[in-house]
Amino acid sequence: MTGRESRDDGHDALYESSGLYVLGALVGEERARFERHMAECEVCLAEVRTLGGVADVLPFSVPQVPAPPELRARVLAAARTARPPLLVRDHTAVRAPASPAVRPHSRGTVWAGWFAAAASLAMAAGLGGYAATLQVRLRDVQQRLGQAMSRLQESEQRLDAANRDATVVRMNLALVTSADVVDLRLAGQPPARQASGRAFVSRSRGVLLAASNLPALPANRVYQVWFLTPGAPVSGGLLRPDDQGNATVTFPVAADTPAFAGLAVSLEPEGGVPAPTGAIYLATQ
């Protein structure tokens, strides 16, 4: 068939379908019509062979961008619901007699479509890379936000501790400045001559005791503070010094506690006892 005969039977329209045929986009009667025409048209056959070579290398014409990990799952899910892909006929198997050369203006139109397709693929790859970059930045922002939240939590904990300390200081200040406060001095006894203490006693606000240089506590033992009343001593509370033997504690004074003018500190079993059983380490002078 000559080039003029091709134009008379719709060659131009069929020639423009070469790219669609290579991509498997022609179906049904359109595909059959193009294949009948290509069997008799050297121009369309040559175009199919040329475009087939381009299609083989087209995936390598854009930068390779690693796909996101979740892409594989999405593709597999889509493949399970999509129709089977169209098979592209092997364009090298068609044989036809010699035909006129491909016309420049028609091939240029097809190449324009291929360049558009390549540009679309490049844009898609670029968007994929941009999305991956955004994910990295998002993870970095989330990490920094987590660190900021941790620092904020630590600051809030320090603020709470400072508020508690300030509350204790205010209470102690109110105790030592109360109208009924009595200042008592405690001296070290034979088990701990180097120990000393000072107590501020207020019936209305309690007792503030500061002790220093107490020996380290033996296992399963604790220091116990006693209010020295005219009758039997009354337990005021327990005392555990730090590694340097120092301790500052406050005790309330129950309303039914008899009047007392002195304090003592003894070493007792862990948990305390109802009445003194151990050696006295501190006592008022």
> How many E-type strands?
8
Fraction of residues in H or I helices:
40-55%
Question: Low-confidence parts lasting 5 or more residues at pLDDT below 50?
Answer: 1-8, 91-107
| Global outline | rod-shaped
Q: What pattern of helices and strands is seen along the backbone? A: HHHHHHHEEEEEEEE
What does the model show?
The protein has 285 residues and is of the alpha+beta class. It has seven helices and eight strands; from the N terminus they run H-H-H-H-H-H-H-E-E-E-E-E-E-E-E. Strands 5-4-7-8-1-2-3-6 form an eight-stranded antiparallel beta sheet, with helices on one face. Strand 1 and strand 2 form a beta hairpin. The radius of gyration is 48 Å and the shape is rod-shaped. The protein starts with a helix and ends with a strand.
Would you summarize the structure shown here?
This protein has 2 domains: 135 residues, no CATH class; 103 residues, Immunoglobulin-like, CATH 2.60.40.
Keywords:
single chain, 285 residues, alpha+beta, Immunoglobulin-like, eight-stranded antiparallel beta sheet, 8 strands, disordered N terminus
Task: Itemize the secondary structure elements and their pairings.
Elements (H helix, E strand, L loop, with lengths): L2 H6 L2 H6 L1 H5 L5 H11 L3 H16 L13 H11 L22 H73 L5 E7 L7 E7 L3 E7 L8 E8 L5 E6 L7 E5 L10 E8 L10 E5 L1
Antiparallel strand pairs: 1-2, 1-8, 2-3, 3-6, 4-5, 4-7, 7-8
